[in-house]
Amino acid sequence: MRAVRFHDRRDIRVEDVPGPQGPLKDGDVLIRPIVCGICGTDLHEYVAGPIVTPAEPHRYTGARLPQILGHEFSAEVLDTGKAVTNVRPGDRVSIQPLVSPRDDYYGRRGLFHLSENLGCVGLSWAWGGMAERAVVNDYNVFKVPDAVSDVQAAMIEPAAVALYAVDRGGVQAGSTVLLSGLGPIGALTLLACRAAGASTIIVAEPNPNRRALAGRLVPDALVVDPKAVDVAAFVREHSEDGVGVDVAIECVGLEASLNSCAKAVRRRGRVVQVGLHTRPAAIDAMLWALKDITIEATWCYPTTVWPRIAGMIAAGLYPVEAIVTSTIDPEHVVARGFDELLDPSGRNMKILVRSS
């Protein structure tokens, strides 16, 4: 079968590889991937990896490089093991890609995303979404309603990251929010804030193409260039009594962005860290103390959020497909996918790869 495989830094190949062989295990699900998103994690692997893709066998899954990529995807169920009861052949599904023990410390508490043995389909699993076939566990598949399209189903995974940030920030009807950074997760967080009922949303983004996208996604959002505007001062001008926003969500993973959020949030407000930092950040801890703020750090998402997001999408509350800017065939995955997303112009936000 055809598959997109990551071998090493700047080395992604479209190759013919053996598909799944032999009888399925009791809890296995054989799937045909449909469309698959290129994630920021995939980009990090391409530019600086291997990082989370294992050069040596993964401690839990046993997977190792080369790795079939793809963890944001929709699929059709082709066959199931005899113990599988949640899906059947012909079902359309969204993949929840996290793989972990069900019975370790975190698994017993339902915190599967925090397991020290965590693996991920498309990153540290034998299979991924950028291929013609894959095998996953029964807990990795969620049957989507008819009202959810294949593209929307593929977008549930990154939407889960964004919604988790909104939940951890306590965004609710009437909240005031600052979003720092409008990459794909920032854009989905913007949509999630509006779905949660935030009344004032300020977006700080230096890229003009992405600022324009923010205006299209949520027309009444206040969008500023942090290189041209003092973000904290702008927030004070647009908040009650100049106190700042209730919640500031950091979606970039940069020191300056994190500190900007701490300055912009009101006393007793919350700063949510979503962007992944690649180096230690110097922060003003005394400012955090003086303002009595809460810092919420997030990792992935609770794996149980799929039905909630699917329901929001089906109801028209969470138009996740609005950030998809291109859909490509596998043979163009590097030139029209990875390289396009690394283009500093930011013309493309989310690119999907047709898997079959």
UniProtKB/TrEMBL annotation:
Its EC number is 1.1.1.-, 1.1.1.303, 1.1.1.4. Keywords: Metal-binding, Oxidoreductase, Zinc. Residues 7-353 form the Enoyl reductase (ER) domain. One of its GO terms (molecular function) is (R,R)-butanediol dehydrogenase activity. The keyword Zinc applies. The keyword Isomerase does not apply. InterPro entries: ADH-like_C, ADH-like_N, ER, GroES-like_sf, NAD(P)-bd_dom_sf. Its cofactor is Zn(2+). Belongs to the zinc-containing alcohol dehydrogenase family. This is (R,R)-butanediol dehydrogenase/meso-butanediol dehydrogenase/diacetyl reductase.
